[in-house]
Amino acid sequence: EPTVRTELMEQIPPIAIFLQESRPKFPTAFFEYLMPIVVRYLTDVNNQVRKAGQEALLILLEQDLVAQSDIENKVCPILLDLSAPDSDDEYKVEAVNIICKMASMLSRTTVEHMLLPRFCELCSDGKLFQVRKICAANFGDICNAVGQEATERLLIPKFFELCSDSVWGMRKACAECFMAVSYTTSPEVRRSKLSPLFISLISDTCRWVRQAAFQSLGPFISTFANPSSAGLYIREDGTLSIRPSAHDVNSNSCQPSNNITLVSSSANAA
């Protein structure tokens, strides 16, 4: 019964955590018995079972419960098979979605060597626009996972393709993640390549794409600032934040003189 298998998948993460905490008593139980079940259910015929298996896998990766050898020898190969060009459409969409979600939880080497080539192929998938849209929506996360060198060498050309995709939803997704992509590149690439590309999005024929681009304009401009002087940085969740300067950290904000100076400066500026 699919419902039984689904329920089983939901119990895998807490069981795995228990086994990890009791590892001296059960040193190999998770790797020998539970991990093979999770991998097998990623290809289950029932989509609810597959979804439960995918969620369980992401929890296990987030909790750092899956060994690197299992990731490279069991998990990645099955995802590559499911996302192959001749794979079933439903399986392919699910596979690219989980590849994008797990990229931030794996080592840079694993992502770059095992998953990045397939991700680049999926960005150009001419059969399913859903696949391209997932790639576009998660593009910033993939750039962050592989770093500047791989981003500029392999991903930026694909980003240009997606930004000029015939489906407006693709271009909108690119506009929404533009800041995250820009943050991963060098100032020169940001200036010479991404700036003209952003102008094309902000001038797009589709109103929804233009609106998304205008909403990303401020965050995109912020990536040109020097983090050490501007204090702007990108959090792990991809949001823009402000890091207090060393002067602010060392100063006592309760001192009346500091507050008076700030108010006075604001008043003068006004």
Automatic annotation (TrEMBL):
The segments carrying the HEAT repeats are 115-154
UniProt cross-references to Gene3D superfamilies, sorted A to Z: Leucine-rich Repeat Variant
Task: State any single GO MF term.
Answer: protein phosphatase regulator activity
A GO cellular component term found in this entry reads: cytoplasm
The cross-references to InterPro entries, in alphabetical order and at most eight, read:
ARM-like, ARM-type_fold, HEAT, HEAT_type_2, PP2A_Regulatory_Subunit_A
Key words of the record = Repeat
This chain belongs to the protein called PP4R1 phosphatase
Native species: Pomatostomus ruficeps (Chestnut-crowned babbler)
